[in-house]
Design goal:
six-stranded parallel sheet, 757 residues, Serine Threonine Protein Phosphatase 5, Tetratricopeptide repeat, 55% helix, Rossmann fold, single chain, 13 strands
C-alpha cells in the first residue's frame, strides 16, 4: 500500500507589506515565492526559515501557515505540522487543502478516525480532489473497511483515470477481499500506465501465488527483481512461492537475501523459520522465530509457528503455551486455534472435557463473525442422487488421499454426485487419478470464508464433508456459515471439531463407542465396520521374510510422528526392550534427520536404561516405495498412545508387520483398536501397560509363528473391511442417504409445526 499523497496549492496569494526582519528590499510576496521555490527544490531548511520570516510580518496569512506545515510534514515533524494546518484552518475554515494535509499528519500518527474526518471535510469543500479520495481510501483500508476503501479508489480513478497509484491500491484492496481476478486486472492496468512499476509486479506475484499459479508468480517476482534487485519484499515473496514448490534450499536463499538487504525484516525471519522447519532444521527454525518475536513481540503468527516446531520436537507443553500466546494476541486466529486443538491430542494428561471446552470455544469464535448463516438451500428435496462435496487440502499423495482413492472409485455415480473443494495448490498423480470421479473440481485458494461458503452454497449440495478437521490447510470456519444442509467431519481428524454447525462425525463402533458420544459437539453416525478404507500403493512391493531370522534379534519399529512418543510411551517401550533380549527399536520420521533431535531421543531412552546402540533412527524418505520398503526391516510395530498411528499402522500391516495397540479412552486412542478389529488382529490389542508388555514379549518369543503371520498378513488384511473398497462404498452411500433422510424428515416436521401455529 502506497503512502499518502500531500496536497499542493499552486499560485500563492501575493501580499504587500514590509518584514520586520530580513534582507532589505524584499517584499513579503517575494519572500513567500522564494520559500516555495526552495521547498520545491528540496532545500528544506532554507524554505522553513523563509516561511518563518514571512509569518513575522503576516501572522494571519493562512497560505503561509499551510506551506510551513508542508515543510514540517516533509521532515516528519507531525505535531508542528498539525499546529500549522490547524492555524491555517482557524484563519480559513474552508481551506480544503489544509483539511487534506492535516488528515495526512493524523494518518501518519495512526489517528485513523480523525484522519478520515479531515479527508471528508476536504471532499465536502472540493468533491473533485482525486488525491483526497485516494488518501481516504488508504485510511479506510487500514481500518479494514475494504468496500468503502475500494469505492474511494474508484472515485479517485473516475476523476483521474491515469492515477497509477490509486489503481494499484484498488488492486491491493480487491486482493484483500479475495477478489483475485479483479485484483490481477488492476495490477496489469497499472503496468499499462507505468511498465516499470515494481510493486505491481510484486503484487501480481502475490496474487498468482494465492491462486496456486506458482510458476507465474515466481516469474513475476523475478521481473520485479530484474527492475529492482534490492527489493527485499520481492525476495521474501519469491521465497514463499519457491517453498510452496518444495524448493526449500532456494526459498531459504531468498529469505536470507531479503534479510541481508533488510536485517529487521520480520516477515522474512518468520518465513525463514517455516522453511528451516520444513527442512528439518528445528533449532534453526526456533532461532528464526525468536528473532522475529524480538523485533515484533506481538506477532501472533510467529508464536503459532514456534508452537509447531515445539510440537515436532516433542515439547508439547511449550507448544501449547505458544499457541495460547498467539491466541491472546489474536483471538480470532483460527490456524492457531486448530494447531492448539491438534496438539492437545498429543498430551497424555489432557482430559476429554478440557479438549471439548477448547473445541467449543473455537466453534463459538468461528460463528461469532457471522451475522446470519444460511438457513435455506437450493438442493432438491427428493433427489435421485445426492450432491456431496468434499473439502480438503489433501487430494494428493497424502494419508487422506490413500484412504480416499479406492472408495471414490467404488461409489455408485447413479446415487452419488461428487464435488471437490480443494484448499491447497499441490497436485500429483493421485490427484489426476481421482479428479475424474468428481463432477466439479473447485479451488478455494485465496477465497475468504464467506465467499467460499457462498460458492459451495450455490452448488446446491445435500451433504458437505470436511476431510481435515484441525489439521493443515483446513477451512473449518467456512462450515460455520452452514453452506450445506448436512455437514460431516470425516477421515482427517480424530476428535471433535467444536463447530455447532457440523452435524455429524462419521465413525465406527470401535473409535466411538456409545459411552463416549458426549466427547463431541457432533452427532455420531457409525459405519458398520470401519470408518477407514485403505487404497494399496500403485507400485508392487515385496514382503520380505521376517528380519529377525536374518538379524538374530527382534527389531521393533515406529514410523509415527515422534511428537506421539511421550515420556509414558518411552517408559513402556524401554520395558519392552528390556523384556526382549537383544532387541532394537527402529524409529523413522522427518525429525530424525536432525542430529540434535535424535541425540535428545537417545538421552530420553538412556534415562530408562536403554543404551544408544539399541536405537536405529532415520529421517523420512518422501518416496513412497522407499518408505514402504523400510517396513522390511521391522518385525513388530509398536503403536504410541494416547495418539495412535493410522496410516503407518495400515501400511505396516500391508507390508506384513503386525502392531501392538493399547486400548484407549477416546477416538484418537481407539484408532489402533479399530484397525486391529477390522483386520482380524484383535488379539494384538492390549488392555493396559502390563498387558502391552506381556503381548509384545510373547509374540517376539515365537519367531516361527511371527514368520507365518508375516507371510500371510497382506492377503489377510487385503480381504478385510479395511481394504474392501466396494463394501466400504456401499456403507458410505447408505450413511450419506441416511443423514439426508434424517434432515428431510426433521425439516418436514418443522414446516408442519410452523403451519399449524
Amino acid at each position: 500500500m502506497a503512502n499518502k499523497i500531500k496536497l499542493s496549492r499552486p499560485g500563492a496569494r501575493q501580499e504587500k507589506g514590509k518584514l520586520s526582519a530580513g534582507r532589505p528590499g524584499l517584499t513579503p510576496g517575494s519572500i513567500l515565492q522564494q520559500a516555495m521555490a526552495h521547498h520545491q527544490a528540496g532545500r528544506i531548511p532554507q524554505a522553513e526559515s523563509l516561511y518563518w520570516q514571512f509569518l513575522l510580518a503576516e501572522p494571519d496569512n493562512p497560505i503561509a501557515h499551510y506551506h510551513l506545515g508542508n515543510v514540517l510534514l516533509d521532515q516528519g515533524r507531525f505535531e508542528d505540522a498539525a499546529a500549522c494546518y490547524r492555524q491555517a484552518l482557524a484563519l480559513n475554515p474552508d481551506f480544503a487543502e489544509a483539511h487534506g494535509n492535516l488528515g495526512n499528519v493524523l494518518m501518519g500518527q495512526r489517528k485513523l478516525m480523525e484522519a478520515a474526518a479531515c479527508y471528508r471535510k476536504a471532499l465536502a469543500l472540493n468533491p473533485d480532489f482525486f488525491v483526497v479520495h485516494y488518501n481516504l481510501g488508504n485510511v479506510l483500508s487500514e481500518q479494514g473497511k475494504l468496500n468503502e476503501a475500494a469505492a474511494s479508489y474508484r472515485k479517485a480513478l473516475d476523476l483521474q483515470p491515469s492515477f497509477a497509484r490509486a489503481q494499484h491500491n484498488l488492486g491491493v484492496t480487491l486482493h484483500d477481499q479475495g477478489k483475485l481476478d479483479e485484483a490481477l486486472a488492476c495490477f496489469r492496468r497499472v503496468l499499462d500506465m507505468q511498465p516499470n512499476f515494481v510493486e505491481a509486479y510484486c503484487n501480481i506475484g502475490k496474487t498468482l501465488h494465492d491462486q496456486g499459479r506458482l510458476d507465474e508468480a515466481i516469474a513475476s517476482f523475478r521481473r520485479a527483481l530484474d527492475l529492482y534487485p534490492d527489493f527485499a519484499e520481492a525476495h521474501c515473496h519469491l521465497g514463499v512461492s519457491l517453498q510452496e514448490q518444495g524448493k526449500l534450499a532456494e526459498a531459504v536463499a531468498s529469505y536470507r537475501r531479503a534479510l541481508t538487504l533488510m536485517p529487521d525484516f520480520v516477515d522474512a525471519h518468520n518465513n525463514l523459520g517455516i522453511a528451516l522447519h520444513a527442512q528439518g532444521n528445528l533449532n534453526g527454525a526456533v532461532s528464526s522465530f525468536h528473532r522475529a518475536l524480538a523485533l515484533r513481540p506481538d506477532l501472533a503468527d510467529a508464536y503459532s509457528n514456534l508452537g509447531n516446531v515445539f510440537k515436532d520436537q516433542g515439547r508439547i507443553d511449550e507448544a501449547v503455551a505458544s499457541y495460547r500466546q498467539a491466541l491472546i494476541l489474536k483471538p480470532d486466529f483460527f490456524d492457531a486455534y486448530s494447531n492448539l486443538l491438534l496438539c492437545l491430542n498429543y498430551l497424555p494428561g489432557q482430559s476429554v472435557s478440557g479438549y471439548l471446552e477448547e473445541a467449543r470455544r473455537f466453534g463459538r469464535q468461528a460463528a461469532a463473525r457471522i451475522e446470519e448463516r444460511f438457513s435455506n438451500w437450493t438442493c432438491s428435496v427428493s433427489p435421485e442422487r445426492l450432491r456431496i462435496g468434499l473439502v480438503s487440502g489433501d487430494f494428493r499423495d497424502h494419508p487422506v488421499g490413500f484412504f480416499l482413492e479406492n472408495m471414490l472409485a467404488g461409489l455408485d455415480p447413479s446415487r452419488i454426485e461428487l464435488f471437490a473443494y480443494s484448499t491447497h495448490h499441490r497436485e500429483d498423480a493421485l490427484t489426476a487419478r481421482i479428479r475424474p470421479r468428481f463432477s466439479a473440481w473447485k479451488s478455494l485458494l485465496g477465497m475468504q470464508d464467506e465467499a467460499a461458503a457462498r460458492l459451495i452454497h450455490d452448488d446446491g449440495l445435500h451433504v458437505l464433508l470436511d476431510l481435515s478437521g484441525h489439521t493443515s490447510h483446513n477451512r473449518l470456519p467456512l462450515f460455520a456459515w452452514k453452506p450445506a444442509p448436512v455437514q460431516v467431519s470425516w477421515l482427517g481428524y480424530s476428535a471433535s471439531t467444536g463447530l455447532a454447525e457440523m452435524d455429524y462425525l462419521l465413525a465406527d463402533p470401535y473409535v466411538v463407542p456409545p459411552s463416549e458420544e458426549a466427547h463431541f459437539t457432533e452427532a455420531i453416525w457409525r459405519l458398520p465396520e470401519s470408518y477407514l478404507c485403505f487404497s494399496p500403493p500403485q507400485r508392487a512391493m515385496t514382503v520380505a521374510s521376517l528380519p529377525a531370522l536374518k538379524e538374530g534379534c527382534i527389531t521393533f519399529g515406529c514410523f509415527n510422528n515422534p511428537a506421539k512418543i511421550n515420556d509414558l510411551v518411552i517408559a513402556l517401550w524401554a520395558k519392552v526392550l528390556h523384556g526382549v533380549k537383544g532387541s532394537r527399536l527402529y524409529l523413522k520420521a522427518k525429525q530424525f534427520g536432525d542430529a540434535t533431535f535424535s541425540e535428545n531421543m537417545r538421552q530420553r531412552f538412556l534415562a530408562c536404561g536403554i543404551a544408544p546402540g539399541r536405537l536405529l533412527m532415520e529421517g523420512f524418505d518422501p518416496r513412497r516405495g522407499e518408505h514402504l520398503a523400510a517396513y522390511n526391516r521391522v518385525d513388530i510395530a509398536l503403536d504410541p498412545f494416547p495418539y495412535n498411528g493410522t496410516t503407518t499402522s495400515v501400511e505396516g500391516l500391508w507390508m506384513g508387520v503386525p502392531f501392538i495397540a493399547r486400548r484407549g479412552d477416546r477416538f484418537v486412542s481407539h484408532v489402533g483398536e479399530s484397525i486391529a478389529h477390522n483386520t482380524g488382529m484383535a488379539d494384538w490389542i492390549a488392555g493396559d501397560d502390563e498387558d502391552y508388555l506381556a503381548k509384545v514379549v510373547a509374540q517376539a518369543a515365537d519367531l516361527e509363528q511371527l514368520s507365518r503371520l508375516r507371510a500371510g498378513l497382506r492377503q489377510q488384511v487385503s480381504a478385510s473391511p479395511l481394504f474392501d473398497s466396494l463394501r466400504f462404498a456401499r456403507n458410505f452411500e447408505t450413511a450419506m442417504w441416511g443423514m439426508w433422510r434424517c434432515f428431510s424428515f426433521a425439516r418436514h416436521n418443522e414446516e408442519n409445526q410452523g403451519a399449524g401455529k
